[in-house]
């Protein structure tokens, strides 16, 4: 084995990415405060052909040097829009037929490893604030909660790590 050179990775341009078919998944960032986490979610969304990102509340918006540092330009390839209020974003997504799923530890949540998706439907996943998670009024507006099973002493993950796990799982199931 040898590590591939960057020229062997078959990278596409931003214009080609914009024309490429996406999976029917939107990410909602609910008051995510870390610019590095925001950038990381953009980069992961690019990697897994995510349709778009909704930046809500205190979540910063591109262009921003700290977002770019981790997004590495994915903030230019992935479509995004800003909403001052997360519930407003969810109202719009519901009107467009999305199934809304909070990524949160909640009673009645669906374990990520048993998640069943309908390829004919569109989904939106909400990633919450690094300290407070997805707040209860936002959870109340969701169709379901998805929980990442965890088995150690800590029962929380960094929001960008949680996002990576969830986006990969949806990508595998919706592709």
Descriptive notes:
The protein is an alpha/beta fold. The protein has a single domain (12-174), classed as SPOUT methyltransferase, trefoil knot domain (Alpha/beta knot). 35% of the residues lie in helices and 22% in strands. The protein contains 7 helices and 7 strands, in the order αβαβααβαβββαβα. The protein has helices at residues 14-19, 35-47, 65-71, 74-77, 86-95, 136-140, 159-174; strands spanning 23-30, 50-56, 79-83, 98-103, 110-111, 122-127, 144-147. The protein has a 7-stranded parallel beta sheet with strand order 3-2-1-6-4-7-5, with helices on both faces. Helix 2 (35-47) packs parallel to helix 7 (159-174). It is globular, with a radius of gyration of 16 Å. The model has no long low-confidence stretch (mean pLDDT 97).
Task: Summarize this structure briefly.
The chain is of the alpha/beta class.
The main sheet orders its strands as: 3-2-1-6-4-7-5
Pick out the low-confidence regions.
Answer: none
Q: State the end-to-end distance.
A: 28 Å
Amount of beta strand: 15-25%
CATH superfamily: SPOUT methyltransferase, trefoil knot domain
Described by the principal axes of the CA atoms, the overall outline is globular
| Rg from alpha-carbon coordinates | 16 Å
CATH architecture call: 3-Layer(aba) Sandwich
Mean pLDDT: 97
**Overall strand count:** 7
CATH class: Alpha Beta
Tell me the CATH topology: Alpha/beta knot
Give a quick account of the main beta sheet: strands, pairing sense, barrel closure: 7 strands, parallel
Count of distinct structural domains = 1
- Indicate the percent of residues in helices: 25-40%
């Amino acid at each position: 084995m040898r590590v591939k050179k960057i020229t062997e990775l078959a990278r596409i341009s931003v214009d080609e990415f914009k024309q490429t078919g996406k999976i029917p998944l939107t990410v909602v960032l609910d008051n995510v405060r870390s610019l590095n986490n925001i950038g990381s979610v953009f980069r992961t969304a690019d990697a897994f052909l995510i349709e778009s990102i909704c930046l809500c509340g205190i979540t910063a918006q591109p262009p921003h040097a700290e977002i770019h540092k981790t997004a590495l330009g994915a903030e230019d390839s992935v479509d995004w829009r800003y909403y001052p209020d997360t519930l407003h974003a969810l109202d719009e997504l519901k009107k467009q037929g999305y199934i809304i799923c909070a990524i949160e530890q909640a009673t009645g949540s669906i374990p990520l490893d048993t998640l069943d998706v309908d390829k004919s439907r569109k989904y939106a996943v909400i990633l919450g604030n690094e300290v407070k998670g997805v707040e209860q009024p936002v959870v109340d507006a969701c169709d379901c909660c998805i929980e990442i099973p965890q088995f150690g002493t800590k029962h929380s993950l960094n929001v960008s790590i949680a996002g990576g796990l969830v986006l990969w799982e949806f990508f595998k199931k919706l592709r």
